[in-house]
From TrEMBL:
Signal peptide: none
InterPro entries the UniProt entry points to: DUF1501, TAT_signal
PROSITE patterns membership: TAT
Protein name, as recorded: Tat (Twin-arginine translocation) pathway signal sequence
PANTHER family: BLL7424 PROTEIN, DUF1501 DOMAIN-CONTAINING PROTEIN
Length: 389
């Protein structure tokens, strides 16, 4: 009886011995014919956009957050005379000065009301109009992007880790990989594996790719490198080759208490990851755009434990050599009580999906009608915010 085994199942079988930890963070990549690169970073846990990009020029910020150190007087770095950069992101200041870092303020997805991390992240990655997508048939907006590019070729689809990213889930071929998972095989075993599948084009290609990517895994990390930074190292290596899109995530942004300490590590990881891309991509950095987005913002006022709770409006971080940075995009709604959403949250004045749509239009020359009908159904792109140089 002939044995039929598809590529995903083949590598899933291999993955049983690879992903010993259930907390492996997956990454996803896709090949594209364009020379431009897009990196999407999901900041899981709801980053406090009013802390990352501090609107210290609004007098109500101090009223709402009397226990927080805010603005230049509190150690933040002045950006515009109205906005300041959180001290934890200070390493990114050279990018701001070089015009390779910017922020979109008061943005959100269409998700409202319940403020659930799980629902918020699903809606962010699905790119839908506010309702949680059904479990069956849900796909991600990056995958729909690939499906609309006839010349795009995806790597063989595979995922290693606890789960894959909804961003790239769908019918278009793409691949997932966790650099924490390594094929712990001797050289002789590797040679035997390739020999066994040498005459089978399906398995030979899959085995060769698995072994190649495994070689770029943890054994090749720089000594002392943080686990999340290692993801960016791996992403840069793929983007320096045939990959054109990378999607990954940074956890740890849920800051209900002692926010200053809670955010120190994720800020450091985000800054180090972006700078790792800049260093490792070399000249490719000039054609790269990084979008770091989160499922929703946090409350405008601090809570009783020096933290913030789940909110709505937040901040989009935009970086890269292809970016027209050194500026803050979007309309500022104000922090007066009457200006807040439900008298508690920063009022969204922009849709984070529209900024992503304009970035993809500029990077890959996509038609606006395709972006608003397929990639982000029903989104209103509005005027070009001018993200890209």
């Amino acid at each position: 009886m002939a044995l039929t085994l598809d590529r995903r199942r083949f590598l899933s079988t291999l993955g049983c011995s690879l992903a010993a930890s259930p907390f492996v963070t997956p990454m996803a990549f896709a090949d594209m014919p364009s020379d431009n690169r897009l990196v999407v970073v999901i900041l899981r846990g709801a980053m406090d956009g009013l802390d990352a990009l501090q609107p210290y020029g609004d007098p109500d910020l101090v009223r709402l957050r009397p226990g927080f150190d805010t603005g230049p007087a509190g150690g933040a770095l002045d950006l515009t005379g109205f906005h300041a950069l959180a001290p934890g992101l200070a390493d990114l200041m050279p990018l701001w000065r070089a015009g390779q870092l910017g922020f979109a303020q008061a943005v959100s997805t269409p998700y409202r009301g319940r403020r659930s991390h799980f629902d918020g992240q699903d809606i962010l990655e699905a790119g839908t109009a506010g309702e949680v997508p059904p479990l069956s048939g849900r796909d991600g907006w990056l995958n729909r992007l690939l499906a609309g590019l006839p010349q795009a070729t995806g790597r063989t689809a595979f995922a290693i880790g606890r789960d894959d990213m909804l961003l790239l889930r769908g019918e278009a071929p793409a691949s997932s990989w966790a650099p924490d998972a390594a094929l712990d095989l001797t050289q002789a075993t590797r040679d035997l594996l390739l020999h066994v599948y040498h005459d089978d084009p399906l398995f030979r290609e899959t085995a060769e790719e698995a072994l190649l990517l495994s070689a770029d895994g943890p054994d090749k990390r720089k000594e002392g490198q943080d686990k999340v930074e290692a993801l960016f190292t791996f992403a840069a290596k793929q983007l320096s080759g045939s990959a054109r899109i990378a999607a990954l995530s940074i956890p740890g942004w849920d800051s209900h208490r002692n926010q200053a300490n809670q955010l120190r590590r994720p800020y450091g990881r985000l800054a180090a990851g972006i700078l790792r891309l800049q260093a490792d991509l070399g000249p490719v950095w000039d054609r790269t755009t990084v979008l770091a987005m989160t499922e929703f913002g946090r409350t405008a006022a601090e809570n009783g434990t020096r933290g913030t709770d789940h909110g709505t409006g937040g901040t989009l971080v935009v970086a890269g050599g292809a970016v027209r940075g050194g500026q803050v995009w979007g309309q500022w709604p104000g922090l007066a009580e009457a200006d807040l959403l439900d008298r508690r949250d920063l009022m969204p004045t922009g849709d984070v999906r529209s900024y992503a749509a304009w970035a993809m239009r500029g990077l890959f020359g996509l038609d606006a009608a395709f972006l608003t009908s397929t990639v982000f159904p029903s989104v209103e792109m509005g005027p070009d915010p001018g993200l890209l140089a």
